[in-house]
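ingest -> validate -> predict -> emit
validate: passed (alphabet ok, no gaps, 88 aa)
predict: started
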Amino acid sequence: MTPVEWGLLFGIAAHSVAVITALIKLVAWVTLHMSVVEQKIKSLEQQVNNDVTGRRVVGEMREDLAIIKTQITDMRSDIHYLRKRGNQ
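emit:
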């Protein structure tokens, strides 16, 4: 082989190595980017789940508070009735 052919062969090999290196870096960047995006999505899903759970708990608390308020009102009326009865 002539020196020109060796030079051409070396150039093609160097170019191939550069292309493979660039592809590896591209794949690594895409993988890292996808990992970051997946973590963000998981974080958002967790926040949404916490929000939904919180809203459900608040809804249940509202029902419980309404029941407690009703019971307090009944107890006040009973106490008021007993006081009136005791004064007679």
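The radius of gyration is 38 Å.
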